[in-house]
Amino acid sequence: MHIRGDHAELVVGGRLDVRSAADARTVLHSAVDGGVGDLVLDLSELDSWDATGLGVIMGVHRRAGRCGRRLVLREVPPQMQRLLVATRLHRILAIEGGIGVESLPRV
After folding, report:
1. Does residue 44 contact residue 19 with C-beta atoms inside 8 Å?
2. What are phi and psi of 66, to 5 degrees?
3. Cα-based angle 60, 62, 68 (whole degrees, multiple of 5)
4. H/E/C letters for each residue in 31-78?
5. pLDDT tens digit sequence for 5-39
6. Which of 32, 65, 73, 86 would you call most buried, defined as having the most Cβ atoms within 10 angstroms of its Cβ?
7. In the sheet where 9-16 sits, what is the strand order?
8. Contact criterion met (CB below 8 Å) for 46 and 81
């Protein structure tokens, strides 16, 4: 897993899973705490996430809200969009451009 960027926009790549969750949480919380306005997470380079990785995203979402910021997901890969829809988290998280639920392939 790798994360690069600043306190306003970060690109997350690789796998966001149980092995990388602690490091990702540290970097993302630091970005939330050190900036103002929206924090954009570009997920275009993210290969996969598991329940722990999704938990990290939700934790960052809550922390951003407490800091008066908003977490915005950008370029969410289709398989991860399906997971957000299945868990109904697409209704809670800010997703740039939204998710076209009708256009997602059925699994």
Report:
1. no
2. -65, -25
3. 100
4. HHHCCCCCEEEEEEEEEEECHHHHHHHHHHHHHHHHCCCCEEEECCCH
5. 888 999 999 999 999 999 999 999 999 999 999 99
6. 73
7. 2-5, 9-16, 39-49, 71-74, 94-95
8. no
What pLDDT, in 10s, does the model give residues 45-99? 999 999 999 999 999 999 999 999 999 999 999 989 999 999 999 999 999 987 7
Position 100 confidence tier, pLDDT thresholds 50, 70, 90:
low
Per-residue tokens: 11: 């690109």
Tokens linked to 42: 């570009």
